[in-house]
């Protein structure tokens, strides 16, 4: 026996699979999907494809208004959860002279746009929906569907009186700092002239849909849309299904990520014929949703939501907790596989990191074996079942949870077309999707091909931010993010961003955004209260934070992702995988929040210059 086999045998005497064989299979599946063009395989929803992003199918008529001339204290760009929570926290501090500028016609962001049938949040609602205690709202189920979440964003908007602060159906086209006036000039596509002392970019990570650069995509003459702009006029029905207008339609859906997993069961139920084009199968675990027990909910005492969110974050970070309060698929994976291993260095005392990593890998194999066994149990046709099995480590792709997806492939009108060997759909013609040499004639193509989540920031945000000396933010960030606390940058006075880089990251994004909003509103309030007009991050403080992020990120996450099947998590498997400079604060969101709380506690605004 080799040393490796000895070690395995000692640690896991009862192992019923061969880890080496699985490793080899994972590597083989990864290699066949790697494309030389990496992220460049996607096309932006711009120019000839702009309508895929700009068209809003949820409004009947576009708002018409004259350009505005406004002098403000704060502009928040984006009215998704990050912008919404920022606006709420500003109001809470008595700052009222602000506007929230948003392309959509309401609050909601992700939940405004993603109304596809079955859309649901896979983070427990009691953690995900913010301000439940303040608004007195009880989520209907453990996992909320999109309409309930969208309604909750509107509830928060009403609760804080934010509708009067909103400029909907308005796209920012540029932010420009004017030093002499100590103001930001905000330009919009409506020709508004807005000057503001502070600006907060809260445009979200999943704001821009992306399209596959499949040859011929522009040639298709049938109907086509992206899942985040669902066309119910064409399909009929609503979020709950009843897509009756598809009864005589042949439909193609391209993509099998978290979005497709949720809408495919509805398409399968209603389309005359559904072709699901799959390049990489998702890992689909049990959902097991349930109604909220009102009696239990009534027993939750003051401060329960923050405690629950922190408990969830602690479990995900691999920290010891007395009780796993959420106890669901996420926390199960985290406890078993040790999500923290991906972000940690071997600095945890005398732990044998190699052994820990091996244990995590074996637990991962076991978990994924269960996921693959679930496919066999749900899908009757052996060939389809084989193709639906994911061969990669659990966190190479976003885990998904759904109880109807796999069984959809038992329907006679649903066909799975695996395009892994060809690294994607081959071609699109006037009336067909071509894959593996076969033309599948269709009436409609639905792109479930995701968002510009980890592409270059300027591609995600379709406007420029010009700071001191005419410098673009994206020039400042050309080698990776440069911020203090992930929230503001040197050379960009009175400017903040709410986001997912260089700060405490959590899959429970609303909590994360709210914590950042609390902090940003504190800083703005302090600057105003101290009678100052200009706040800027010191270059040294920014540099120190960048170094800290890079040093703590270690190499674990990069190494892990490089071995993964391609996807947006590892920038399509290209080169060095992730840029360590763009990493989150490795000790996790609870530690990050504690750090910010200590920072605020001193009242020194360390790292910021005020004048
Ligand atoms: P993803 O980016 O996860 O998936 C895109 C899909 O399109 C993949 O299956 C991809 O295949 C496929 N694809 C891309 N190009 C081609 C091509 N040329 N030919 C064939 N297939 C192609 O997008 P989603 O919208 O599904 O999810 C995005 C994110 O949104 C999630 O990761 C999650 O963070 C979030 N989300 C969260 C939900 C929640 O419950 N909280 C629900 C839904 C989404 P491949 O994998 O091979 O690249």
Estimate percent helicity.
Answer: 25-40%
Beta-strand residue fraction: 15-25%
**What would CATH call the homologous superfamily of the domain at 69-208 and 453-610?**
FAD/NAD(P)-binding domain
Round the mean pLDDT to the nearest integer and report it.
94
Q: Are there runs of 5+ residues with pLDDT below 50, and where?
A: none
Sheet of most strands: 8 strands, mixed
SS summary, helix count: 21
Cα distance spanning the termini:
69 Å
Can you list the ligands bound to this structure?
A: NADPH dihydro-nicotinamide-adenine-dinucleotide phosphate
Morphology call: globular
Annotation, overall tally of beta strands: 22
Oligomer: single chain
Q: Kindly identify the CATH topology of the domain at 69-208 and 453-610.
A: FAD/NAD(P)-binding domain
What's the CATH architecture name of the domain at 69-208 and 453-610? 3-Layer(bba) Sandwich
Structural class: alpha/beta
CATH class division of the domain at 69-208 and 453-610: Alpha Beta
Radius of gyration from the CA trace? 24 Å
Describe this structure in words.
Helix content is 34%, strand content 15%. The model has no long low-confidence stretch (mean pLDDT 94). Bound molecules: NADPH dihydro-nicotinamide-adenine-dinucleotide phosphate (NDP). NADPH dihydro-nicotinamide-adenine-dinucleotide phosphate binds at residues 33, 120-123, 206, 212, 214, 254-260, 277, 279-280, 398, 419, 424-425, 448-451, 567-568. Residues 33, 120-123, 206, 212, 214, 254-260, 277, 279-280, 398, 419, 424-425, 448-451, 567-568 line the site of NADPH dihydro-nicotinamide-adenine-dinucleotide phosphate.
């Amino acid at each position: 026996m080799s040393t490796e086999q000895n070690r395995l045998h000692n640690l896991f005497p009862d192992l019923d699979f061969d880890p080496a064989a699985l490793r080899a299979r994972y590597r083989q599946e990864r290699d066949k999907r790697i494309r030389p063009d990496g992220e460049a395989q996607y096309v932006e929803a711009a120019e000839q494809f702009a309508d895929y992003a700009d068209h809003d199918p949820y409004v009947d008529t576009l708002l018409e208004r004259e350009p505005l001339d406004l002098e403000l204290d704060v502009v928040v760009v984006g009215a998704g959860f990050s912008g919404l929570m920022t606006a709420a926290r500003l109001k809470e501090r008595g700052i009222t002279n602000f506007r929230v500028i948003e392309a959509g016609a309401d609050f909601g962001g992700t939940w405004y746009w993603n109304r596809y049938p079955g859309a649901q949040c896979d983070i427990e609602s009691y953690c995900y929906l913010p301000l439940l205690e303040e608004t007195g709202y009880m989520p209907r189920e453990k996992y909320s569907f999109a309409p309930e979440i969208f309604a909750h964003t509107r509830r928060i908007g009403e609760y804080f009186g934010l509708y009067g602060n909103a400029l909907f159906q308005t796209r920012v086209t540029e932010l420009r700092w004017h030093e002499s006036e100590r103001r930001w000039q905000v330009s919009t596509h409506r020709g508004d002239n807005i000057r503001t002392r502070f600006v907060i970019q809260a445009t979200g990570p999943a704001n821009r849909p992306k399209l596959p650069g499949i040859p011929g995509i522009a040639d298709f003459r049938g109907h086509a849309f992206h899942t985040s702009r669902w066309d119910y006029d064409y399909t009929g029905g609503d979020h709950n299904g009843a897509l009756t207008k598809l009864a005589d339609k042949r439909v193609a859906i391209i993509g099998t990520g978290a979005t497709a997993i949720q809408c495919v069961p509805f398409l399968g139920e209603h389309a005359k014929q559904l072709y699901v084009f799959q390049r990489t199968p998702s890992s689909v675990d049990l959902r097991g949703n349930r109604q909220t027990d009102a009696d239990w909910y009534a027993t939750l005492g003051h401060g329960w939501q923050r405690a629950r969110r922190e408990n969830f974050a602690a479990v995900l970070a691999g920290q010891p907790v007395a009780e796993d309060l959420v106890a669901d698929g996420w926390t199960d994976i985290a406890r078993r596989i040790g999500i923290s291993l991906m972000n940690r260095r071997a600095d945890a005392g005398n732990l044998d990191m190699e052994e820990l990593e091996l244990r995590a890998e074996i637990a991962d194999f076991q978990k994924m074996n269960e996921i693959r066994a679930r496919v066999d149990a749900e899908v009757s046709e052996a060939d389809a079942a084989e193709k639906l099995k994911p061969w990669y480590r659990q966190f190479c792709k976003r885990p998904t949870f759904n109880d109807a997806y796999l069984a959809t492939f038992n329907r006679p009108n649903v066909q799975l077309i695996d395009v892994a060997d060809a690294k994607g759909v081959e071609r699109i013609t006037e009336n067909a999707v071509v894959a593996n040499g076969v033309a599948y004639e269709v009436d409609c193509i639905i792109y479930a091909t995701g968002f510009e989540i980890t592409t270059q920031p300027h591609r995600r945000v379709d406007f420029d931010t010009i700071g001191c000396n005419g410098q673009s933010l994206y020039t400042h960030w050309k080698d990776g993010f440069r911020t203090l606390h992930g929230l503001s940058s040197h050379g960009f006075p009175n400017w903040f961003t709410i986001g997912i880089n260089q700060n405490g990251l959590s899959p429970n994004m609303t909590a994360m955004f709210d914590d950042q909003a609390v902090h940003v509103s504190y800083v703005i309030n302090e600057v105003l209260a101290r009678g100052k007009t200009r706040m800027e991050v010191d270059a040294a403080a920014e540099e120190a934070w960048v170094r800290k992020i890079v040093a703590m990120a270690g190499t674990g996450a990069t190494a892990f992702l490089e071995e993964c099947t391609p996807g947006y998590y590892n920038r399509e498997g290209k080169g060095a995988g992730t840029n360590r400079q763009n990493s989150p604060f490795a000790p996790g969101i609870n530690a990050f929040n504690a750090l910010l709380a200590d920072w605020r506690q001193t009242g020194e605004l360390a790292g910021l210059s005020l004048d």
